[in-house]
From TrEMBL:
Taxonomic source organism: Hymenobacter perfusus
Biological process terms in GO annotation: polysaccharide biosynthetic process
CDD domains for this protein: AHBA_syn
Protein name as it appears in the record: GDP-perosamine synthase
Active-site residues, Swiss-Prot/TrEMBL: K194
GO MF terms held by the record: GDP-4-dehydro-6-deoxy-D-mannose-4-aminotransferase activity; pyridoxal phosphate binding
Catalytic reaction equation(s): GDP-alpha-D-perosamine + 2-oxoglutarate = GDP-4-dehydro-alpha-D-rhamnose + L-glutamate
Length: 382
């Protein structure tokens, strides 16, 4: 750690409790230092219990889970996969791993997530050309549920299976049901900055026992049932370590508490800063939606303030406070320069107007005051 890191306020640092170390110590004492063992089984059980999913496969990352999920859905070379433009690149990279082509869909303003109208356009165009997409990936950005009712109805109407990237949305709910369980396959991430962490890790959930078995098989090098090393299919080394799963077990005990705290942080920022002219906060919850408020995002309105999100970011930096731009839309990424996109103006505007504030669940009142003070310094004219 550098000396200036001591009072640095990070965007979303890991927040451990007391029980992680017990699980980790036990793994080491019992010599389960491998991608197999009781913590791994327990972590998968914990995730099933919390979400209500029937099966869970713990993996090295959320990206690996998306990759296996797409392969389970039969996505391969030449296929198209619909995907929101407004998301982290890890949502779309596995489409390329499978040799398939992403097609990006704009956001809608209410939840910032995939827009049902643009989605219908894409599906109708696919149907018209007689090449429906092989899968639809949905994302709940910053923990906010996407418009699930409309989107699932569209997917059903056109017969396109849904992979639900709930990497940012563990602990969020839609009409009382935990996110991650709405798609045929759901994905969670336990990366260092997510609401819970195993340092790095992910999980795939599904109600299909056969798919869970298949995912585990591919994740452990696809070894055939033979006394020697025989392989008929392509596999990967994607299984989570039993040591890291121990961190995950301790973290899962804290999930409800972490969601509560992130929601309080969002509410605090809103209460203390929303009156500043030109400043507003990320999406309100539509009726029936319950967000884990993974990150609190603000928006600056250029009609009301000359301060830009980047000026604010640099100002916070001088106070040793980390903030980050919203995800840069994928249709604007050089990597995807040739990709077809349905709309894109809505998420582009969110990107140019937004900034994510420190939102870690270990933040104190003094930390929040510090961020608010620094925001006011720049945005409130003396
Ligand atoms: C973090 C994240 C991922 C990837 O998860 P990793 O565990 O980091 O591989 C995928 N999609 C979204 C929306 C994410 O935020």
């Amino acid at each position: 750690m550098r000396s200036q890191d001591y009072d640095r306020l990070f965007l979303s640092p890991p927040h451990l409790g007391r029980h992680e170390l017990n699980y980790v110590s036990k793994a080491i004492e019992d010599n389960w230092v491998a991608p197999v063992g009781p913590n791994l089984d327990g972590f998968e059980r914990d995730i099933c219990e919390f979400t209500g999913a029937r099966h869970c496969v713990a993996l090295t990352s959320g990206t690996a889970a998306i990759h296996l999920g797409l392969r389970l859905l039969g996505v391969g070379p030449g296929d198209e996969v619909l995907c929101p433009s407004f998301t982290f690149v890890a949502t779309a990279n596995p489409i390329l791993y499978q040799g398939a082509t992403p097609v990006f869909i704009d956001s809608e303003a209410e939840t910032w997530n995939i827009c049902p109208e643009r989605l219908r356009e894409a599906l109708e165009a696919g149907k018209h050309q007689n090449r429906l997409p092989k899968a639809l990936i949905i994302v709940h950005l910053y923990g906010m549920p996407c418009r699930l009712r409309e989107i699932l109805a569209l997917a059903a109407e056109f017969g396109v299976p849904v992979l639900e990237d709930a990497a940012e949305a563990l602990g969020s709910r839609y009409e009382g049901q935990p996110l991650g369980t709405f798609g045929t396959i759901g994905v969670f991430s336990f990366n260092g900055n997510k609401i819970l962490t195993t340092s790095g890790g992910g999980a795939l959930v599904t109600n299909s026992a056969e798919w869970a078995r298949q995912a585990r098989f591919w994740a452990t090098q696809a070894k055939d049932d033979a006394p020697y090393y025989q392989h008929s299919e392509l596999g990967y080394n994607y299984r989570l370590s039993n040591v890291l799963a121990g961190i995950g077990r301790g973290q899962m005990e804290l999930l409800e508490d972490r969601v509560k705290k992130r929601r309080e942080i969002y509410a605090w920022y809103r209460q203390h800063l929303a009156a500043i002219p030109g400043l507003s906060f990320g999406p309100l919850e539509p009726v029936g939606s319950h967000s884990n408020r993974w990150l609190t995002c603000l928006l600056l309105n250029p009609a009301e303030t000359t301060v830009t999100p980047d000026q604010l970011r640099l100002h916070l930096e001088t106070r040793n406070i980390e903030s980050r731009p919203l995800w840069k839309p994928l249709h604007l990424q050089p990597l995807f320069a040739d990709v077809t996109s349905y709309g894109g103006e809505v998420c582009t505007e969110l990107f140019t107007r937004g900034l994510c504030l420190p939102s870690g669940s270990a933040m104190t009142d003094a930390d929040l005051q510090r961020v608010a003070g620094a925001v006011r310094e720049l945005l409130v004219a003396e």
